[in-house]
Backbone:
């Protein structure tokens, strides 16, 4: 009774935290608790009456015992409802908010515009520096003082005492040699992080808020205040990493270190990290349950002849050491708590209930930090462990026709995949097709590398040279593992975008998974549950692909980027500058379930030195590629694009002035060889994309008939007012190259000048991506997102 009551209350607490994503979530949990109490009270009374009627033929004590054992007290459900309500309130109390002296409070509107204001921030380094994708050093800084650098506008203000954590990026050489607890002064520019401006894009503002950070600093120079090194676990981690990299090199040495310390504690190259994520082996880089089980297993095996107290003490020390080495990651803490539960079972000579220990570990973690409920690492770790407990064994039993060792190799990755795929689909919208067979093939290599990494790590702390020697024996297993992952990623269809599933779809799919674990009827028809789950994902994607008519103008810094979806046919116009493909275009296309681009038009609209076409071609094939001939200045890049297209059987065609590209719903034509002007007709609507032009050029173009009034105009912000007054479009969209603050000022001026006109204005800097459908109005991504989350 006590056990079932504890389970119900723990589940209610977790459910309450999950319901923070629902308006009035806590009230709903309380209502569910009240309804459950009423229902189970009715069941309890009914069973009592049934038992009393059978008193003449069945022993009274026996009937009463059955009722007591199988029916939770209704009061437990009321308590659970209250716990769920309190959980939502507790979550809101723990959501990070900037304090009165938080450094983000001292950032003016000028700091987020193009006007640079240099400051000096003093504080303590809170993390080991890492390399970003843009090849800059990044670390966290606990700020203590803010100084303004003297400028020409007047004397600098007095130093201010501040608090708060900063996300700092500096040139890579400036970050070299930094270590945690070091006091430094960073000269640079403060900024407030921005929310995602495009569908599917990374939300930097949300990420920093989860870390309790509300500001960033683009550093230019670091001055050291205190160079005295203070001991910390970071030194132990560095000793291990240096020892393993010494003979293994990069990336093999870093991958070996990540196997034992986790990728968050090791600065693993992004290309290796992306490869493992793409093929569905991200769990191999996460320190969690596998390493914990390995540590306990080795310790208990080596000390099996010792007293039980000695085994437990050494086990506890091993788990605590691993916890500190892995830098207190949520998944590691969860695994360590479950390890402690196993040691308690050993001490009491009782079999540990794995499901109960998992639930206890999750509840304790979420009591310590309720915000972890939305941490992806915690969610995946919990689901994967749950899969091993409740699903792996039934799968193994159904595979009794093959040897047990092989059946176990299949059941473990298959169970983990079943439980984690729905969550991954909602977040990343991509399925790693070969993840299960690849996990089976690489299990032996991952086990060898993990065990060897742990042994060499322990030896490295005592004799670094000997640790390096031992690690060198792991070169070939690690190298073969990387080659297998790379080969899998290069296979056709290795990852398939299916589009982002809704929360409702995900809940129904998890309901089916839970039903096949708990309900006998569904257990016998597991194939039917799987079929329903697949249909729930495939049918909406198929329907959307064959019926969707949508134009999306993505929010980019300079060049206009349009994605046109016409009943499964996808047209991409322009790719933006370097990085836009990886961080803006591809995430959007993945969210939309797009796996190929039918038509692509490259104009190099603002003569970018480099664009993102190669980034896109790395992930998606393009069937027909058109490039404006007068802009093909970079022969090396053009040749690289042509080679990529040929490998994927795409067609490359140069496009001359006045030549028309027509793919049915869209017509594109370059109409001026001196100025960047692209005329489009999309779903019968006229669009005009105009680059930076001067007032005199606009007048000349209109006078000579080079420009006609479009329904939709895109142009840089600095040309907006002149073009709107001259062309009078129905809708005008300006890019965000001049910054949000300046764009808003321009917006007000233009509205004042066009108070009698009917032009509707949008700014991608403040509105985000702009979307339009033939039967609807223009919608802004940021406004729609705010409306969806306003009630949360």
Residues:
């Amino acid at each position: 009774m006590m056990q079932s009551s504890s389970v119900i209350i723990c589940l209610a607490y977790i459910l309450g935290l999950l319901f923070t994503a629902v308006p009035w979530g806590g009230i709903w949990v309380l209502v569910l608790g009240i309804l459950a109490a009423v229902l189970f009270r009715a069941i309890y009374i009914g069973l009592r009456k049934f038992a009393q009627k059978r008193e003449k033929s069945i022993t009274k004590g026996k009937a009463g015992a059955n009722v007591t054992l199988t029916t939770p007290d209704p009061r437990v459900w009321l308590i659970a409802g209250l716990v769920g309500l309190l959980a939502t309130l507790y979550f809101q109390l723990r959501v990070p908010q900037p304090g009165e002296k938080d450094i983000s409070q001292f950032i003016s509107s000028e700091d987020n515009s193009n006007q640079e204001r240099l400051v000096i921030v003093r504080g303590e380094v809170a993390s080991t520096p890492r390399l970003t994708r843009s090849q800059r050093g990044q670390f966290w800084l606990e700020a203590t003082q803010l100084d303004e650098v003297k400028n020409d506008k007047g004397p600098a203000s007095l130093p201010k005492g501040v608090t708060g954590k900063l996300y700092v990026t500096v040139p890579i050489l400036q970050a070299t040699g930094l270590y945690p607890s070091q006091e430094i002064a960073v000269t640079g520019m403060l900024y407030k992080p921005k929310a995602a401006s495009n569908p599917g894009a990374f939300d930097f503002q949300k990420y920093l808020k989860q870390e309790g950070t509300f500001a960033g600093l683009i550093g230019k120079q670091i001055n050291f205040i205190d160079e005295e090194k203070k001991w910390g676990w970071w030194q132990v981690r560095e000793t291990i990493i240096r020892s393993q990299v010494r003979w293994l090199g990069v990336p093999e040495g870093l991958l070996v270190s990540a196997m034992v310390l986790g990728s968050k504690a090791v600065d693993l190259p992004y290309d290796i990290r992306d490869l493992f994520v793409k093929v569905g082996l991200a769990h191999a880089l996460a320190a969690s349950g596998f390493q914990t089980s390995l540590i306990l297993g080795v310790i208990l095996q080596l000390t099996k002849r010792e007293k039980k107290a000695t085994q437990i003490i050494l086990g506890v020390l091993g788990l605590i050491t691993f916890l500190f080495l892995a830098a207190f990651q949520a998944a590691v803490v969860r695994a360590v708590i479950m390890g402690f539960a196993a040691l308690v079972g050993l001490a009491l000579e009782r079999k540990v209930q794995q499901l109960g220990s998992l639930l206890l570990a999750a509840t304790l973690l979420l009591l310590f930090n309720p915000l972890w409920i939305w941490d992806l690492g915690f969610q995946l770790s919990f689901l994967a462990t749950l899969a091993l407990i409740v699903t792996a064994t039934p799968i193994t039993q159904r595979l009794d026709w093959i040897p047990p060792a092989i059946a176990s190799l299949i059941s473990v990755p298959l169970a983990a995949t079943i439980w984690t795929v729905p969550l991954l689909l909602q977040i990343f919208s991509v399925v790693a097709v070969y993840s299960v067979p690849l996990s089976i093939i690489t299990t032996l290599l991952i086990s060898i590398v993990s065990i060897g990494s742990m042994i060499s790590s322990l030896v490295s702390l005592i004799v670094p040279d000997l640790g390096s020697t031992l690690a060198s024996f792991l070169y070939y297993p690690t190298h073969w593992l990387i080659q297998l992952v790379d080969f899998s990623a290069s296979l056709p269809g290795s990852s398939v975008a299916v589009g982002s599933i809704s929360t409702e779809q995900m809940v129904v799919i998890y309901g089916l998974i839970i039903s096949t674990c708990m309900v006998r009827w569904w257990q016998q028809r597991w194939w039917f549950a799987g079929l329903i789950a697949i249909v729930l994902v495939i049918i909406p994607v198929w329907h959307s692909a064959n019926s969707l008519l949508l134009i999306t103008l993505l929010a980019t810094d300079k060049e206009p980027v349009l994605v046109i979806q016409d009943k499964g046919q996808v047209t991409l116009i322009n790719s933006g500058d370097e990085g836009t493909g990886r961080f803006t275009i591809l995430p959007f296309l993945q969210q939309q379930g797009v796996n190929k681009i039918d038509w692509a038009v490259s104009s190099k609209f603002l003569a970018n030195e480099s664009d993102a076409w190669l980034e896109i071609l790395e992930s998606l094939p393009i069937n027909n590629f058109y490039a404006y001939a007068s802009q093909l200045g970079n022969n090396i890049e053009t040749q690289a694009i042509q080679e990529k297209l040929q490998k994927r059987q795409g067609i490359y065609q140069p496009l001359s002035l006045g030549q028309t590209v027509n793919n049915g719903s869209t017509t594109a034509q370059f109409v001026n060889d001196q100025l960047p002007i692209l005329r489009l007709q999309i779903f019968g609507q006229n669009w005009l994309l105009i680059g930076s032009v001067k007032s005199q050029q606009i007048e000349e173009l209109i006078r000579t008939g080079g420009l006609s009034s479009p329904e939709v105009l895109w142009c840089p912000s600095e040309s907006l007012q002149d073009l709107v007054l001259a062309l009078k479009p129905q809708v005008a969209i300006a890019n965000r190259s001049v910054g949000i603050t300046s764009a808003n000022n321009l917006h007000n001026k233009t509205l004042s000048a066009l108070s009698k006109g009917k032009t509707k204005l949008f700014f991608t800097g403040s509105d985000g991506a702009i979307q339009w459908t033939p039967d609807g109005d223009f919608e802004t991504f940021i406004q729609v997102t705010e409306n969806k989350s306003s009630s949360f």
Summary: Confidence is low (pLDDT under 50) at residues 60-69, 737-745. Residues 25-53 form the longest helix (29 residues). The two ends are 36 Å apart (CA to CA). Residues 246 and 468 are 6 Å apart (CA to CA).
